[in-house]
Design brief:
Elements (H helix, E strand, L loop, with lengths): L7 E6 L6 H5 L8 E2 L14 E2 L2 E2 L5 H4 L28 H5 L4 H11 L3 E5 L14 H19 L6 E6 L5 H15 L3 E4 L15 H10 L2 E5 L8 H6 L3 H23 L1 H4 L4 E5 L5 H20 L7 H8 E5 L6 H8 L4 E3 L13 H8 L2 H8 L1 H6 L3 H19 L1
Parallel strand pairs: 1-5, 5-6, 6-7, 7-8, 8-9, 9-10, 10-11
Antiparallel strand pairs: 2-3, 3-4
Length: 404
């Protein structure tokens, strides 16, 4: 807990081991996936190459711009990024443990997190291009999902995961969702908000996937990652990641929400829960207002099936994450409701404010509002009293072991 408040991290990340695909990928596909090799002959962290193509638009040209140490910038007073400096040593404990599951729980303890839903790092870009072999897409998902399931077994009442789905074939995506939920205990799935193979999120093509999430009572999460080969932001902004990181996390999410609202996804699947993650959320009220503005002109002629307002759909079906230090949090909550917000620590990424995410939120908004936001992830993923009781017992065991 955080200062007596329950806290679900709706979007915490892991760092995949470099040998994940050696150990978990179906042998029929292993020769199609390669990783960088160091002087010692061992695979290293870096851009994965699949079928001869890098998994992300961001590769060698950007690496020299990301020093591991901040070169004397630790004195920054920026309220949004002041706690991210690499020379703070804030991630040393995780680096020393090679980002294992024990380090994950240690990180949760530092932030006061009861339950964390885990997302990948390199895995965000694995499938980020059109025209990928659907069977290879599925095999990559199966490998990651099997590994993250085992990772969570270190403390399954604290560590949950969102399944990676193959977006290149909706039927394969449905099958993998069923497997992950019924056999591995996934609490939902994630996809990127980008256009895939010409099918955007207003397309009826995705209806079986929406229906299945509703039937299984699990959450669909949108999670952008920048650098997607199929992202329009590459065409607009080229190799400058600064442009693309700002634009993709907001604009791709906005387009996904517009598509789903106007297409009637929430009308036809009224119990579907959708999270818009790691994109902050002050953009949400403006998009809802813009759609509402056009309702009188276009609703009857172009979307006669809609029975609620955009805000009503959002407040019934959607949650959007914050990262704690945004100055607009209280204002956004006044428009969409603090209960429709959740919080992402984004641990252990370079642009995360870990381990001060929860402190930043408490310093930023009234405590009663913070409590609702801390609990937003519980509503998004449908965690109940039993989940929290089990998580509390697991946390007590961790503290007892740590004290020895």
């Amino acid at each position: 807990m955080k200062d007596g408040m329950r806290f679900v991290d709706c979007d915490m990340h892991i760092m995949e081991p470099v040998d994940l695909f050696d150990r978990y990928l179906d042998s029929r596909f292993r020769d199609r996936v390669t990783l960088p090799v160091g002087a010692d002959g061992q695979r290293t962290r870096g851009v994965i190459v699949i079928d001869g193509q890098p998994t992300t638009y961001d590769h060698d040209t950007q690496q020299h711009r990301k020093p591991h140490r901040s070169r004397g910038q630790s004195e920054t007073s920026q309220p949004l990024s002041g706690s991210r400096m690499a020379d703070s040593g804030r991630l040393d404990f995780a680096i020393e443990r090679k980002y294992d599951a024990i380090a994950q729980v240690m990180g949760m303890e530092l932030e006061g997190i009861d339950i964390a839903v885990l997302f990948p790092t390199m895995g965000l870009s694995l499938l980020a291009r059109d025209n990928m072999d659907p069977r290879l897409s599925l095999a990559l998902c199966e490998a990651y999902n099997n590994w993250i399931h085992e990772f969570c077994q270190h403390s399954p009442d604290q560590l949950k995961f969102s399944a990676m789905l193959p977006p290149h074939d909706v039927n394969l995506a449905c099958a993998e969702l069923v497997r992950c939920v019924t056999e591995l205990g996934a609490v939902g799935s994630f996809v990127r908000p980008n256009l895939v193979n010409g099918h955007f999120w207003h397309s009826n093509y995705w209806n079986p996937l929406f229906a299945l999430h509703e039937e299984l009572d699990v959450t669909l999460g949108f999670h952008e990652g920048t650098g997607a080969a199929y992202s329009h932001m590459n065409e607009l902004y080229g190799e400058n990641r600064f442009y693309r990181h700002v634009a993709s996390h907001w604009i791709e999410m906005q387009q996904a929400l517009i598509a789903m609202l106007i297409a009637g996804v929430f009308e036809f699947y009224p119990k579907l829960r959708v999270g818009f993650l790691e994109a902050q959320n002050s953009w949400v009220p403006g998009i809802l207002t813009r759609i509402e503005w056009d309702y009188p002109q276009y609703r009857d002629s172009h979307a006669p099936y809609l029975s609620l307002t955009p805000k009503e759909y959002f407040q019934r079906n959607c949650w959007a994450a914050v990262e704690g230090s945004e100055p607009e949090i209280a204002a956004t909550a006044s428009q969409i409701g603090a209960d429709r917000m959740c919080i992402s620590t984004d641990y252990p990424h370079f642009d995360s404010n870990f381990p001060n995410v929860s402190n930043n939120l408490l310093n930023n908004v009234p405590k009663d509002m913070a409590a609702q936001i801390f609990m937003g992830g519980a509503h998004l993923y449908d965690f109940n009293e039993e989940h929290f009781a089990k998580a509390a017992l697991a946390a007590e065991k961790y503290r007892a072991v740590a004290a020895e």
